[in-house]
Design brief:
226 residues; alpha+beta; 4-stranded mixed sheet; 24% strand
Amino acid sequence: MSLGIGWDAPLTGAPQQPQLWLAPLRGGDLSSLSALEWGWGEALPEGQRQRYWHSRAVLRQQLATVLGLGPTHVPLHSPPGRPPHLDEGLGWISLSHSGEGLLIGYSRQPIGVDLEPAGRPLDAAGLMRRFYPVAEQARLQGLAREDLRQAVLTSWVLKEAAIKWRQRSLAAELSQWSYDDSRGRLHHLGDGVQPDCRSAVHAGWRWAAVGAGCSRPNLHSLLSLR
């Protein structure tokens, strides 16, 4: 099912607009994994091992539809703890999983994605004071409790996606990003970059995507596979 935010043709060749897939974590075929992926997974603790294998299986399945290859032939390099990437010239990918949900992003240009349960409990005021720039805090002051939680969560997932887009570290970059919800604008306080971005809620998940064209990505929901 495509939600029709952007390009909505069959996924063959390399689409012009960023493509997102929101999927159940365990919806892929583990037989598509490479020998390296099996080996990398074996070295992880059991809980992490299963998440790693299942997420890479779904990633291979969806990239196969874009690249016109079988899932086992997708030239994917995706060791644990590092951003996944394709062979040069085949586009950029980003991956985020939370609980039993998985978000995959694919684009012709660098992309970052992030995913959280839309109802995730959090200390919104505490997170805002600790990590968000003063100007952003001022914009959020006065919001009611639930409105503040939603605003802080939206800003958080966009910033995580932005950090993945630039392949930087959360510790070094989180406080450098500011989000203006009223304008839908994300910007970096250090160098002033303002990437295209989008965040929304679908089927109980808050998702975010950052990178060229991500103001109108095409989101494909695979949650019916559950």
